[in-house]
Amino acid sequence: MNSDDSKTGTEQPFISHLIELRSRILVVVLWVSLVFLGLMYFANDIYTYLATPLLKHMPANSQMVAIDVATPFTTPLKLTFVVALFVAVPVVLYEFWAFIAPGLYRHERRLILPLLVASTALFYMGAAFAYFVVFPLIFQFLTATAPVGVAMMTDIAKYFDFVLTLFVAFGAAFQVPVLTIVLVWMGVVTRQTLAEQRPYVIVGVFVIAMFLTPPDALSQLLLALPMCLLFELGLLCARFWEPKVNPGAENNSNTIAHPIDLSDQ
């Protein structure tokens, strides 16, 4: 085979991968668009539901405001698009998994798929925890600390940005078990080392909670305690994916560890 044929042979798989990637992205865009169109009619209702935790704690006869002219129209639509992304996550995960799975080993497929599902479920749990537990506490605290004579009239666009940031922050914070398992599986750190460093991890969790919540002990505790419990859960689950030590590894510190093949279990 001459150089031109070799070059053509290497380019064809690359182009085929790009075509497949484009097709899967188009499927994701189509699903998100369909969900968005289906929810567009309920955009204002969705925003009202999102604003409920704040509206419950605002003073009587007070309301939210829209500073910009187009905000009453654009902000509910932005929220609806975010909700459409949330609803379409299973499709996004499936297309992502279908694209990368052929290039993975069997033991890698048995690890990554459960982690993708668990990561998504934990993100949803973090967002739900923020909405049903953290939001009422935050808004109760913020509305109670308003100075006398100051009317609290929150802009709907600012509120959307605020709660979206918290959703992402709490969803990311709930990824602690997945992060723990991945670090152990990759050999970056051992499960025993993480267990020994538990006091430092707990301190770090409370520091993170301090930045993610209002400056009151209750809110910090409500975020820090679940993160500590999720860390312990990650340590418990990580033992199933600890690197396998090759025979004779005690005498050779340079021995390379390989992940456990769960297919044999």
Short description:
With 265 residues, this protein is mainly α.
Characteristic key phrases:
mainly alpha; 10 helices; 265 residues
Can you tell me about this structure?
The protein is mainly α and about 260 residues long. The protein has helices at about 5-40, 45-55, 70-85, 90-100, 105-145, 155-175, 175-185, 190-195, 200-210, 215-240. It is flat. It starts with a helix and ends in a 27-residue tail after the last helix. The model is unreliable at about 5 and about 245-265 (pLDDT under 50).
Structural topology:
Layout: H1 3-39, H2 43-55, H3 71-87, H4 89-100, H5 106-144, H6 156-173, H7 176-185, H8 191-196, H9 198-212, H10 217-238
Helix pairs in contact: 1-3, 1-4, 2-3, 5-6, 5-10, 7-10, 9-10
Assign a percent range to the helix content.
Answer: over 70%
In total, the number of strands is 0
Overall SS class: mainly alpha
Assess the beta-strand content as a share of residues: under 5%
* Mean pLDDT over all positions: 81
- The parts where pLDDT drops under 50 for at least 5 residues are 3-7, 247-265
Rg is: 24 Å
The helix-strand sequence is: HHHHHHHHHH
Overall 3D form: flat
